[in-house]
Amino acid sequence: MCHFTVGAPCGGDLSDLSGEFFSPQYPNNYPNGANCLWRFLGSETQVVNVTFTFVDLEECCDSISVYDGPTESYPLLGRLPQDQIYHFNSSRSYIAVVFRSDYSVTRQGFRAKWVISG
To answer: Tens digits of per-residue pLDDT, 37-57?
Structure first.
């Protein structure tokens, strides 16, 4: 069973073993000036997998960045839509996902799921 939360929150700390997360206002267009950070937090022996199942961003100016750790100071695993990679695996018990939009064109955004395992 799945449901959509219109006006989904912009970021947060998530530690459930699995679930879905969305850009703000999904499935409607995301707002201008979004700056969201989701942190997926497993235990010491766990790893985090994030898969983007839908991505519709303004290609020039809006982005999703995925980091191999709890903040942007950790190694970058990839950036959407530029890298065209939609599945990310952590090397440790954290992944951070940052979504940013500029102040012009907005689109539908993204839908993604995560699994914490190990």
So the answer is: 999 999 999 999 999 999 999
Query: Which run of H or of E encompasses 45?
Result: none
User: Among residues 57, 27, 63, 40, which one has the least CA distance to residue 118?
Assistant: 40
Two tokens, residue 76: 């970058």
Residue type, 95: I
Grouping H, G, I as helix, E, B as strand and the rest as coil, residue 104 is coil
Q: In angstroms, what CA-CA distances link 117 with 40, 88, 97?
A: 12, 13, 18
Tell me the three-class secondary structure of the chain, residue by residue. Answer: CCCCCCCCCCCEEECCCEEEEECCCCCCCCCCCCEEEEEEECCCCCEEEEEEEEEECCCCCCEEEEECCCCCCCCEEEEECCCCCCEEECCCCEEEEEEECCCCCCCCEEEEEEEEEC
Write down the pTM of the prediction.
Answer: 0.91
